[in-house]
Amino acid sequence: MADSQRLSLTTVDGVLLEAEFVRPDGPVHAGAVLCHPHPQVGGNMRSIVTSALFAALPRSGVACLRFNFRGVQGSQGSYTGGFREIDDVVAAIGALDEHLGPLVPRVLAGWSFGGDVALSVNDRRVAGWFAIAPPLRFASRVGPVAADPRPKVIVLAQNDEVQESDDVAATVASWNATRVEIVGGASHFFVGRTDEVVGLARDFARSLAR
To answer: Which pTM does this prediction carry?
Structure first.
């Protein structure tokens, strides 16, 4: 895997965000934007699940871009409760576009708060959504994605202490083209279970590349 490249993203409202991009050494089958957990409880682009995806997916041919939401570490701006963070994700998708060809499918992935924000971004460039333990408390515009025919995978922790997995599963049961995966024995932080999350993400990306 090639070394990661540092990037600077500019949102539509002029906020500068720090980001990192990594490209597989071999052919690129898919690309992924990775959205991190809640900024106000220490979430950043190097949080455990985001880092596991960023490290492992390129070995399977998936280019990855991770970034810090506004107000986090080296990113400008301040937290807005998941609203203007949507603009951050759109900027990240645009940056990924600059590094990939037009035929490479894009996965929009996020963990926890990042999953909620990802599910609020209904962008034509996205081939599918991969949301990990989304509490659905910050998903401010989830309706269009819920109704969209493009595929979605919702990965839930069996023992999630932030939001009951059964409640999230019940909410998304009526969504279009949505599959729920339960990681047995996992907490919201997936300690000791990140390999299972990576495997599900890898398989989803591969399915989009066919």
So the answer is: 0.97
